[in-house]
Specification:
mainly alpha; globular; 2 strands; two-stranded antiparallel ribbon
């Protein structure tokens, strides 16, 4: 969802503007790059979290991460450690 303004729908999901296909594709590509860089065998939610903040895209996830003072480097270290522990 880009640009905010989404509303909670009747099923509890968020309605509103979804990321455009090129933006979604870019996030998935960057997520794969994160997984490969961390030598993980699969792309997980942690990699998807890192992708927008890595690229500096104006995505809601990146805004939340930056808004809480979390740097990309720290997030990458913490996500890598969490995913390594889960493996």
């Amino acid at each position: 969802m880009s640009g905010g303004g989404g509303k909670v729908g009747p099923a509890g999901g968020v309605s509103g503007a979804a990321p455009s296909p090129p933006q979604a594709k870019k996030v998935l590509e960057l997520s794969l790059c994160e997984a490969i860089a961390l030598r993980h065998k699969a792309v997980g939610s942690g990699h998807i979290l890192l992708a927008p903040s890595r690229q500096g895209l104006p995505e809601p996830v990146a805004a939340v991460v930056v808004g809480h003072g979390l740097t990309y480097e720290r997030a990458r270290r913490d996500v890598g450690a969490a995913l390594d522990d889960a493996a």
